[in-house]
Amino acid sequence: MSEEEKNDLIWASGHFLGENYPEDFHMWSEDKLEQYCEDHTWDMLNGADGSWLVDQIEHMAWSVREYINSQKK
Question: Least buried of 11, 12, 59, 71, by fewest C-beta within 10 Å?
Fold first, then answer.
């Protein structure tokens, strides 16, 4: 994972979680990351599956990066 990708994911996590991913999240197991998401989700997403939250965060990070890159052209 590049530093840019890591930073994008940390940024995007703040849109779904009350506490952004920590700097070392990329070294965690999938189970630990999903549990972190479930433990730190916004109240309105309380009860959401950790796997779903991780997918949403990844999709947002990827979408924003694609938009940023398209604007540089």
Answer: 71
Phi, psi of 17 (to 5 degrees): -120, 150
DSSP codes, 45-57: GTT--HHHHHHHH
pLDDT by residue, tens only, the chain of 73 residues: 899 999 999 999 999 999 999 999 999 999 999 999 999 998 888 899 999 999 999 999 999 999 999 998 7
Q: How many domains does the chain have?
A: 1
CA distances from 33 to 4, 22, 60 (A): 19, 10, 16
